[in-house]
Amino acid sequence: MAPAGDNLAEPIAVAELRAEVIDEKQASLLAEKRASISAAPPPQTDAPVPASAPDTVTPDGEFPTANELGQLRRVANTIPLKLFSIAFIELCERFSYYGCTVVFTNFIQQPLPPGSSTGADSVQPGALGMGQRASTGLTTFNQFWQYFMPLLGAYVADQYWGRYKTICWALGIDILGHIILILSAIPPVIKGDGALGAMIVAILVIGFGTGGFKPNVNPLIVEQLGEQHMHVKTLKSGERVIVDPAITIERIYMWFYFFINVGALVGQVTMVYCEKYVGFWLSYTLPTVMLCLCPLIMWWGRSRYTRRPPGGSVLGPALRIWTLAQKGRWSLNPFSCWRNFHDGTFWENVKPSRFTDETRPKWMTFDDAWVDEVRRGFAACAVFCWYPIFWLCYNQINNNLISQAAVMQRHGVPNDILSNLNPFALLIFIPLNDFFIYPALRKTGIRFTPIKKITAGFFTGASAMIWAAVVQHYIYQKSECGKYASGEGCAEVPINVWAQTGSYVLIALSEVFASITSLEYAFSKAPKNMRSMVQAVALFMTAFSAALGQALVGLAADPLLVWNYGVVAILAVIAGTCFWFQFHDLDIHEDELNELPEGRAGLTADEESPYQNKRLDE
Fold it and tell me: Where's it mainly located (predicted)?
């Protein structure tokens, strides 16, 4: 599998599509796109180009020329208001998710306070008293489960139900899981053995709901834009600009992520104080109430939202193409194997136009353009394969950093309130990047493309772990219990808890670079009838990271916590470096990847695709 994945990272030149378009107008447009994108444009600047400039003669609405691609400023398209209703649904769902999970560590790790029947305590709330290692293990499993199930939800949406129907059913299941979670924390249950069992059942049920929701809401919001193509536009000021769908998608997902973190921030802050002064049952009830708003908004949008029908059985053909492409390429000689997989014909040889009617497999009911889309989607999945290391950094804020705060001087601040610095920082970084940093980079001719952003995300995440390791080192230095600072009877370490700020802020910045970009990349690079599945693959990397994190659970306790953060930092640096060397060539071909024509799958014998090729040797 690895050699095929490497091959997927190779640039896809539009000139290699070899599509013979039957409709003459379509053929002319495709030829113009090829010529424009393949030409090497001069460095991009944001300098305004007057409408009267001699080399900007393309009419408004048409694809820009090679000169215009290099000279005109790129802008986002107008964003319809209905997109924000979907963003609000995500806000409510993330409020429910993070509002509950933020108190999981205390619920599992800390014991029930003396005399309390709800787990509330002004000093240290708790319930099950299972210790840090158990809390890290269970929260890591929860992380794995919530991001493994999107593979199932995406499959159901892409093949059977479509995104809208799948989301509606998923929300109902999610609400049921939250009700079970409430039952685990009510006074008659929290004192007995049933609390742990009810919590585990709730986690499993919520996973089914999250699995149907997350991979489908991410593409649903951008699909409300309709078909988007790069085109020239003259502003009221007379400046000619390029309306770039990639920048539009970038902006949508930036603000989509903003809404996510509004929900996360409000949910986490309020639920932490609910557990502290009322009890865990309220920390689970209020998120459930917020989640109940989501079906109402979906009902409101039933006739307003653009709904793309399910694509039918497309995952099977996509995997069959990939398998067929490997035929005859494997070799015991690693050098021969590498050459076979990188000879430039891996995907070309499995296009329908390469087969006669007699030799073409019956399952090959798609056109050549769809093969190019699948190739691009597999390349995106190859990019995501490095993400488990990135999420390994992020996951520290859900368990180990919360436990780290518990041994520091808090001055009345709950130990799990510090994690809210992460969404709070994101609420600052997102508009800062969207309105100032990214436009400034484009103005200076620097295109901060997806591969560059993701690479920056790895190194920023590594910096956050280095910060955490340094703080942990000084905790051991200053604790009266030495390297067993979290042991029973140990006094608070004389280090202010706000010393953790750097870790949370750096992780937030790494999310802007890597996490938001993964949403953009999964949407823009996936075949249109496999968008949920590619989103699910991106989300699954979080689950894989949680499984990887289980291997580090042995380091998640005194006296090994410095090693815990240090190992994660080293892994992130190595992964970021390898990622850049493997995929940096994709940046050069970003425009052509985004402008591939849409192919068709599931064609009958009587249907003919606009991009159906003839045999190349005819």
Answer: membrane
